Description:
This protein has about 160 residues and is mostly beta strands.
Amino acid sequence: QLKAPKKVRLDPRFMRQVVPLRTDEAAGTIIVNTSEKFLYLVLGKGKALRYGIGTARDGFEWSGTHRITRKAEWPGWTPPAEMRKRRPDLPAHMPGGLNNPLGARALYIGATLYRIHGTNEPWTIGGDVSSGCIRMVNDDVVDLYARVKIGAKVIVL
């Protein structure tokens, strides 16, 4: 049984918006600033599309430069073995849908276990909440998914 998501008021600073951004990175590059809780999609000419994000809780932080290697709509979720050890209540696999923690879209980051994905918990945006993945509200991840190509550079700071 699918449940419709609750309406949540997002803090206005985490709402999607075009902002100035000084960078030498090419248009189409994703820059994730985990300390600020923002993901920037470089548009070029000193501008970026900024999205609010939820990031890793203590002990799960990471950084690096990778590429988007796969994209999926309403992805299924198979929690990694380490996560199932910590949380034995998790299912071995959960099909995609409204109740799936990966939300509406997922962009897979290199050979890592991490993704940029939607969430069925939009109130977590702006917090340190994940096991390393970058969370976005579903409307934002659908927007980003449509704009980003496989092979796009991802820089996680």
